[in-house]
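Morning. Coffee machine broken again, so started the prediction first thing and wrote up yesterday's gels while waiting. Chain of 270 residues, entered below exactly as on the submission form.
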Amino acid sequence: MRLLIAADVDRTFIERISADPRFAVRHQPVKTEAELAAIVGDAQVLVTRAYNKVSRRVLDAAPQLELIAQGTSGTDNIDDAAARERGIPIISLPGENANAVAELVIGYLLAMTRTIPQYTREVVTGIWSRDDCATRHELRHYRLGIVGLGEVGKRVARLASAFSMEVIAYDPYLDAATFAERHARPVATLSELLAACDILTVHVPLTDATRRMIGAGEIASLHRGAYLVSAARGEIVDQQAALTALANGHLAGLAMDVYDPEPPTTPFPN
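Came back before lunch.
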């Protein structure tokens, strides 16, 4: 079976799959839709990651394709309707990287609220200023708002609770008992969450309903001096609106692990 790995993956995976006599493995990472369409021709199994756009054009270029294996949890980069028409199953790894993302989010919270990057820049340039240290607060003084209490969101809630943070969450698909199990107090609407939190972090899949879910209006609903973390999909948070709010001081901090588009095409402000 001809297997095309069109993404950067762990070397151990390549070694193991290449050692399996059932597979003829080709590892050829590409970034664009056009590049993928150009190389997918005879593949029977396609291994992708979130940045590989598996469009109808790509599927049409792969007449022998039998399976798409996505090495991440979300599959919004794949034209699901076109794959279904061809009877091509899509498998993914839901929750596989949830703990890693949750740890990263907590790292962002510490870095932003304690201004660690700023102090690092100052120290390496010879500046030793401690005048504003008293204005920095421990995480327990912040109310964390989580949009989406799934695999990642629930881990963020648990870790935040260990820091004695008050955690509130908006997820219309869960009942009260599940919120309690996941260390969060439910709120009825997104608007209520935005008005009540000091830090907002978003953990929902990218769908038509969640695209630009956090736009300029939602960011304006956060109180001045709030923090925002975007670590789900780049298109869920209006990136330009968030950068504008950071520049004008409405947001005290902004952490982004995802971008729109990826990779970023323009430099970001320091």
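The chain has a mean pLDDT of 93. Going to sketch it on the whiteboard this afternoon.
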